[in-house]
Amino acid sequence: MKHPLPVRPAHICVLRLSALGDVCNLVPTIRVLQRLWPDARITWIIGKGEHSLLSGLSGVEFIVYDKATGWAGMREIWRQLGDTRFDVLLHMQQAMRASALSLGLKADLRIGYDKARAKDWQNWFTHRQLAPHDRAHVLESFLDFARLLGGEERVDAEPLRWDLAIPDSAYQEAARVTGEAPYVVVSPCANPRLRNFRNWSAEGYAAVIAHAWEEHGLRTVMTGGSSAQEQEMGARIRALCAEEAVIDAIGGTSLKGLLAMLDRARMVIAPDSGPVHMANALRTPTLGLFATTNPDRAAPYCWRRFVVDRYPDAVRRYLHKSPEAIPWGTRVRHPDAMSLIRADDVIAQFDALLDAAPSASPRSEPDHET
Questions:
Q1: CB count, 10 Å around CB of 185?
Q2: Hey, how many other C-beta atoms are within 10 angstroms of the C-beta on 219?
Q3: What is the per-residue pLDDT across 208-260, written as a single tens digit (0 to 9) for each?
Q4: Closest by Cα among 148, 170, 143 to 159
Q5: CA 307, 311, 313, 318 torsion-angle sign
Q6: Cβ distance 92 to 15 under 8 Å?
């Protein structure tokens, strides 16, 4: 017997700890839940870095879990929420750490992914599972939780909204780096996890930066974290570019400052990483570079048609299969896969996106809060 769904949930718990791009893709689901049940209280259990990105999100109470604290951090959250019982817990993280954390939370109903999408036996920790949704984009998978609770027709009739909070201080921080002239943002590196080959070449980025400067008069601001890999990539790109064409801000902004910088950019160019989804959430024109991950699943959602997509080629060359024959979400873990992306392809999409941007995703109404 299935556990019944709440008709009017009074308190909803969202459990999603990471990562930066994923939590950005989850925000439209939060906004839909708020519009369906405006009186409902929403508590989001989130990772430390992800909270620094989304802090100030209206109508949401955040409980922050720092994974570095391990079991002690989980016990503190259980203590903090010891007197709280949720009407429904939306278990949106397919990871054993999140499932373990969920065990100490009190909820009348626990909803997780269907068996095909669940990982690390997540379905063992939930009462009900989502309906199957083959070949779903990450953002659509999150919306499936709202569809189960509120009905598909009601949810799909709602527009996508993010309304991220960006304080004035973040815009001031960004302006100190970018100045007032129009600019493009390049975030060249993805998270340097093991066998995570998502980075394009310094030479390719330099060619696009030169094109932006010489043909369009647009300087490029490079952004990223402070890791040695990112600093080295920035130095290599900078050495290949005219000095006046590029501003190196790698490791030089807070997450809120980066949001402000992306919000004011003419375009953002990056591989499959947090910044493409952050830019997408701000409706900034976004050019994603994809070869090792499937853009049909993970591209910047509102700008999918402008992705440079070499994933099918990478699957055929390095996995020796057709894209249709592999499981959904399979990554091509080969260090040469991103080299299938050519600079000419990126430049062509750059020009197409620059021309189409004013009409491709209207930005007449601000989609952020200050």
A1: 25
A2: 18
A3: 999 999 999 999 999 999 999 999 999 999 999 999 999 999 999 999 999 99
A4: 143
A5: positive
A6: yes
The single-letter code of the amino acid at 133 is H
* Non-local CB neighbours of 103 within 8 Å, separated by 6+ positions: 125
Provide the b/e sequence for 108-143 (b: ≥16 CB within 10 Å): ebbbbbbeebbeeebbebbbbbbeebeebbbbbbbb
> In the structure encoding, which two tokens stand for residue 232, read together?
């080295």
Angle at CA of residue 245, ends 241 and 251, nearest 5°: 85
Instruction: Say if CB 101 and CB 15 are below 8 A apart.
Output: yes
> What residue has token string 């853009």?
295
Write the pLDDT tens digit of every residue in 348-365: 999 999 999 765 543 333
Q: Which residues contact 8 (CB under 8 A, 6 or more apart)?
A: 37, 40
Q: What is the mean pLDDT of residues 26-39?
A: 98
The residue written with tokens 């910047």 in the block is 300
Arithmetic mean of pLDDT over the chain? 94
Q: Which two tokens stand for residue 293?
A: 């991950």
The conformation of residue 61, written as its DSSP 8-state character, comes to E
Residue type, 80: Q
Question: Taking the CA of residue 189 as centre, how many other CA atoms within 13 Å lie in the half-sphere pointing to its CB?
Answer: 22
Contact residues for 26 (Cβ-Cβ < 8 A; gap 6+):
14, 16, 92, 139, 142
Please check whether residue 259 is in contact with residue 225, taking contact to mean a CB–CB distance below 8 angstroms.
no
DSSP type of residue 3? P
